Amino acid sequence: MQFMDNTRGDKLNKYRATVQLGADHSAYTDALPSTGVAIGTVTIREHSGALVYLEHIGGYIMITPNRVHRLNDHKINASIVQAAQDQQLDLATCSAVIREAIERARQINADWKVQKTAQLKAQQ
Questions:
Q1: Contact yes or no for 80/101 (Cβ under 8 A)
Q2: Cβ neighbours for 38, distance < 8 A, ≥ 6 positions apart
């Protein structure tokens, strides 16, 4: 299995990601990293794979049958928030892993918006 990231020419991070929270990831991998938690699947252009959160680095990877792609955390967090809205997930009935991913993504997005707003106000 080959590991790809931005420094090695992985172009997937240029495109929009579509996340399916809680989807069956077993079609893409039967093994997860020891500190990884599968939260569903992700599709970027014509590439699909298991969406895995790596707790020790606080980031996301996509595992396909042939490769592991390091994903842009900001884009994946935005996609997770969008997926939670689109799928109309009730946090009370979600698994703890999915609930934590949604809450983490919402918090990170909120923090980013506050930071961006402050930067724009400082420029004025």
A1: yes
A2: 25, 32, 50, 51, 52, 97
Quick one: pLDDT band at residue 10, thresholds 50, 70, 90? low
Is the alpha carbon torsion for 100, 102, 108, 110 positive or negative?
negative
**Count: domains in the chain:** 1
Cα 120 to Cα 27: distance, rounded to the nearest angstrom: 44
What domain range includes position 14?
2-123
What CA–CA distance (Å, rounded) separates 98 from 106?
Answer: 12
Q: Is the pLDDT of residue 3 over 90?
A: no
pLDDT of residue 62: 93
Give the integer Cα–Cα distance in Å for 70 and 118.
29
pLDDT of residue 40: 92
DSSP character at residue 7: G
Please answer whether residues 68 and 50 qualify as being in contact, where contact means their C-beta atoms are separated by less than 8 angstroms. no
